[in-house]
Amino acid sequence: MPIWRFGVVPWLKEKILDPLLQIIKRGAEPKELAFSTALGVTLGVFPICGTTVLLCGMAIALLGDRCHAPSVMLANFVATPIELSLVIPFLRLGEFISGGPHFPLTSDALKKVITGKASREILLSILHALLGWFIAVPFILALLYAIFLPCFKLLVHKFSSEPSSPKKQTLLSWRG
Fold it and tell me: Where is the DUF2062 domain (predicted)?
């Protein structure tokens, strides 16, 4: 049975594509959109589930008008499934960087976690995952920005109904 019969395509259009097009049509700068989207994805893959919205909110508050809040939050939303898939790579990177013990991902480890017998090991593995994420952040952010910038330049040029900056708008109103 095709995937679109389950409503995935309409859901993606409604939840991701339509909001993205609304953001672009409102005249945001491609650099700001690329940075904000890269930031949202980067914070969205933070290895502690359930904390990414708070991190994005703090980043928006700290950066103010240097980032585009709706783009950060939309990218965070899109990054949620990726977050879960990167916990183990961040854990392994943190273990490698710190030279710490290898946390075994076995059914026995899960049993220890559930029964509360592995609290020290779990805390150490969380710290390793955070270290791995922290080390990877500049590379993830830079790579995503480099990928997103040409994409947003093209999308803004194609779909924007307003000038992309206040300077352009001022020049257009002065000429007209």
Answer: 20-158
Token pair listed for 172: 């257009």
CB atoms within 10 A of CB 158: 8
Q: Which sign does the torsion angle of CA 68, 74, 76, 78 carry?
A: negative
Predicted TM-score of the model (pTM): 0.79
Name the token pair of 148.
């997103």
Instruction: List C-alpha distances in Å: 156 to 22, 24, 35, 44, 152.
Output: 11, 6, 14, 24, 6
At 95 the three-state DSSP class reads helix
How many CB atoms sit inside 10 A of residue 143's CB?
A: 13
- With contact defined as beta carbons under 8 Å apart, do 22 and 155 qualify? no
- Stated as kind and residue range, the H or E segment containing 8 is helix 8-12
Q: pLDDT tens, 154-165? A: 988 888 765 555
